[in-house]
Design brief:
alpha/beta, cytoplasm, two-stranded antiparallel sheet, Aldolase_TIM, TIM Barrel
Length: 340
């Protein structure tokens, strides 16, 4: 029997999303910048921390030998480039299995490290995760559709809100509530905010599809749910009224610095990458990936300069156009019929 975590890695690499919402968003160029390239500041702040760069390696894997190999390479890359890395779900380690498959500050003392655990795990499990990993913050992931499609998945969800309130009240580190690729709706954010959560990774459709992954593992024919959920850009558009009230992080289908900037324009404090970085780690040496990530920093600066924005918060003032599906959805929200 193959390891479920290894299946996730393989299926994630095999899956090709049929649509990426970032392609339906166009930024308005500014012809007369006020700043020199060296003036551009990429720093950002969320989850109680200042970060030098507005992108990070998002939660992916752990709990297997393959996961250990991937995580050690990613941790080395993250430490070398000074970007944050979030571990995959710590659930396997909580069972006493494959603890070494997760990056450790003992091995990577300068790593900016955050942890991840499922909301189905009680606060005591979260506290153990925090104690063992010593993370800057803890992601609490929401994966209802994945659990429903997973043959061995969770079937009881009634306690999730109580568990979330428990984490919010007791955790010694900030809690980031994270979707896993289906897009987080406005009502969920408002409900969680009322429970004490202030930082949200909305993780929309367009990147890794856990519906597809679990359908590949299942004997049931539910492939019609492979594209369940809202895209990353649509999710960000849906929650515009909340971006000044809570801290929004964006992930899901982010491929390169232009996608990152688009997410920041729509109010994200920072952008998470999973599959894109996983592909790089699979295809290139650590030194090559480090060079690519460092080049992204320069690309972010040049795009910001072309938008006449010196800081990440200033990006929220950038004008943009919507095309294709995003424009159709926007017109539908306004009660207008799309023109043919």
């Amino acid at each position: 029997m193959t390891n479920r975590k290894d299946d996730h890695i393989q299926f994630a690499l095999n899956y090709q999303a049929p649509y990426n919402s970032f392609d339906d968003m166009e930024l308005i160029h500014h012809s007369l910048p006020e700043y020199d390239l060296q003036d551009i500041d990429l720093s950002t702040h969320f989850a109680g921390q200042d970060f030098e760069f507005p992108f990070y390696i998002n939660a992916m894997t752990g709990g297997s030998e393959k996961g250990r190999s991937v995580n050690r390479k990613l941790a080395y890359i993250a430490q070398a480039t000074g970007i944050l890395m979030v571990t995959g779900s710590y659930s396997a380690a909580l069972k006493g299995k494959d603890v070494s498959s997760y990056p450790s500050l003992n091995d990577f003392p300068n790593l900016l490290l955050a942890g991840n655990i499922g909301i189905d795990k009680p606060y005591s499990a979260g506290l153990q995760t925090i104690t063992e990993l010593q993370p800057l913050f803890l992601q609490l992931h929401l994966n209802a559709m994945q659990e429903l499609l997973m043959p061995e998945g969770e079937r009881q969800f009634r306690s999730w809100r109580t568990t979330l309130a428990d984490y919010a009240a007791k955790s010694p580190v900030p809690i980031v509530l994270k979707e896993v690729g289906f897009g987080m709706d406005k009502q969920t954010i408002e409900t969680a905010r009322a429970l004490g959560i202030n930082t949200f990774d909305i993780s929309g459709r367009g990147g890794t599809s856990f519906a597809y992954i679990e359908n590949q593992r299942s004997t049931k024919n539910r492939s019609y749910l492979n594209e369940w959920g809202q895209t990353t850009v649509q999710t960000l558009l849906n929650i515009q009224s909340l971006t000044d009230k809570v801290e929004i992080l964006a992930s899901g289908g982010v491929r390169h610095p232009l996608d990152m900037i688009k997410a920041l324009v729509l109010g994200a404090r920072a952008v998470g990458l999973s599959r894109t970085v996983l592909e790089l780690a699979e295809q290139y040496s650590s030194s090559q990936v480090i060079a690519i990530i460092n080049s992204w920093k320069e690309d972010l600066r040049l795009i910001m300069c072309a938008l006449n924005c010196r800081t990440v918060p200033e990006l929220k003032s950038v004008d943009y156009l919507l095309h294709g599906q995003l424009l159709t959805q926007k017109k539908a929200e306004l009660g207008l019929k799309p023109r043919h």
